[in-house]
Design goal:
360 residues, alpha/beta, Nucleotidyltransferase, domain 5, two-stranded antiparallel sheet, 5-stranded mixed sheet
Length: 360
Amino acid sequence: MFTERTSVGLDVHARSVAAAAIDGVTGELVQAKLTPSHDHIRSWLEDLPGPVAVAYEAGPTGFGLSRALAAAGIRCEVVAPSKLQRPSGDRVKTDAKDAVHLARLLRLDEFTTVSVPTVDQENARDLVRAREDARGDLMRARHRLSKLLLRQGIVYSGGQAWTTTHDTWLRRQRFEASALRLTFESDYEAVLAVKARRDRLDEAIAAMAADSEFTPIVRRLCCLRGVSTLTGFALAVEVGDWHRFTGNTIGSFIGLVPSEYSSGTSRVQGSITKTGNTHLRRLLVEAAWHHRARYAPGKTMRDRWELATPAARVRGDAGNRRLNARWDAFRARRKRHVVANVAIARELAGWCWSLAVLED
């Protein structure tokens, strides 16, 4: 319940901040145009009738403003933009109107907040996302190189691509035309550079996963098939506070639940919503494919179990058996594999949640 006297809405941009304050006693509306400086915003808030509560939308400016206001003793809520309630007939959007709208929603408590990570959590999240960017850059660099060779009628047929043997084959390629030779060398150099950058990030993530506040969660998550150290660490830092979800709601947060349109007696379900964190959804979908094969714990899985607690090992083994049985059931029903895998990924998210909140 809103208890402060003044509710403030901030429409925050990189170079400007539109502010609107509503006094709950007099009903007065005060609007201002502020700079993004935290000190300037804080000094403006201190001149308002207190106590004051602030709300602004999550965006590219990050959580620095929220931390600065919290340190000054001002309640600050970071609002999820996709969950904001807006009038359907409103066709005029300005920064000032957005700030007033946020202030009114704050007073009514009609908003959905996002979880504000700590500085260490945000730094770890940035590291994981840098690795994800490197993965995408490497894929694109490899595609450019392979398609360049394909246009010249050169196709590798010596086995799996991007292995040591494939790399040796690439080094043997020679071109007479200087322009083509320079293009090939440029694309090949780009592949090597991005691969080296990805490997450096992998080493940094492995080191942090072995000795950080996320280590216990990562070791528990790695009890599931398809969840390696990189995947477990990414899940841990992207979700952050697992206790704000349940086994049922975690799938909705990641966007792995079916969309629905129901009216009256009709109920229509469509494809998955694909809302929330795209990175998490991709990791879980890729991990779900590992549960398709027959379940037989090997040395890699047992080595991961040795790092986890007995309760986590038992829980992980139960999850692996359950998900493999679900795959068998879908195959027996001749379910399309891509559809079945998404269903497995949704259930895998629930098993990850149960391991993340498991007490050591």
